[in-house]
Amino acid sequence: MSVAARLAALGHRVEVFEQSEEIGGKLGWFSRDGFSFDTGPSLLTLPAVQRDLFLKTGDPIESVLDVVALDPVAHYRFADGTEVDLPGGGLPRVARALDEALGAGTGAQWTAFQRRAAAIWDVAREPFLESPLDGPRTLLRLARSASDVATVAPWSSLRGLGRRYLDDPRLRTLLDRYATYSGSHPAKAPAALATVPFVEQAFGAWYVRGGLHRLAEAVADRAGEHGVRIRTGTPVTAVLAEHGRAEGVRLADGTEVRADVVVSAVDAARLYGDLLPRPRLRPRPSRRSTSGFVLLLALDGRTPGLRHHTVLFPDDYDAEFADLAAGRPVADPTVYVSAPDDPALRPDEDSEAWFVLVNAPVHDPRRGTDWRSPDLVERHARTVLDTMAARGLDVRDRLRWSEVRTPADLEERTGSDGGAIYGSSSDGARSAFLRPANRSPVPGLFLVGGSAHPGGGLPLVGLSARIVTDLIGPA
Fold it and tell me: Start and end of every Amine oxidase domain (predicted)?
């Protein structure tokens, strides 16, 4: 939707084909009985990306959306019983909160790590996040500067880098969580992912009143203002490329739509494997990112002191990553709760709408977990609720109803491979820099979205749209 709005603003005639009946993709939405839930992202980081989109296509984002800073950003509960609210408003406030909650000196440890993360951000932002991917040559550009290589530390993992700065085990647990933002293992994900907590805490975390799905609606409205035609419930079954370049798409009803340029937001694995079935075009196999198992909980009553985000850590975080690597449901998962204090999401003042997520392996009936098994889904839902209760958030007697969303559901709704939230994982020293490129091997075919460069999550998806717009240029 973002690239459609940007290209239309530059004079292109654009048509969007969306397989779902609703726009938004993984930025989903569910409503029932007055309860409403964002079913994908629950916060907005690096808002400058979205502000740039709206400014380049018309009026500023504030003219159509109420974007508010979160403070605190999240409440964390560790296995030893300690708790901390991580505030918004910048790194010094975070350091003070850590000192007060976890003990003197923890703030200084985290600050030292964040200084290194800031240096990585300065080196990597332009060549790796804001520019087109150019395969191994992208890494070679960095290699020309020994100091830049030393800063980014491509030979080190996120966990390895963290242990140079963080002695407190709770800080290490906190850092490990940020690897899951890209569906990766902290001991395998590159040190460059240190930029994830840096961006969140240096530039703030934000929420859109009424739910983040309103961002998708606002982008669609902006695209429509520039003449973009959006056709929902219209799956694409093939990219037409008979004469050596992309010439359009074939729809599920057999209709062929001709175009000078095709931009795909389909999961890259599905694009190259199914819509462009020529084997030589398929990228090298890569490990899929993890997925998520979700409970949407409609609750009676209000929870005193409830934060917008709550994270409940397990006793053994490594056991969780081992379960995910083995392709099995996590026995003792980290539990993530998003419960915005937003009247638009609940039917009355004496109720709450909770989005509850635990990390999960992708849907893979042949080699891993079959998320279409009703017995498995029911057992795992009970596990999540029991785990929440054991860690101090027991809502079982307040439950009006619940909805379950599995990796298989995500695959069906969005076409993502196995329900992988971020496409390929960032495991491996070079993986974060070598995702499927925005310019495909087929002339005239471009890739955007979370499975392509520069990666998943709202800010990176927005950057992919900006990169592709620059590659295509004005009409």
Answer: 2-455
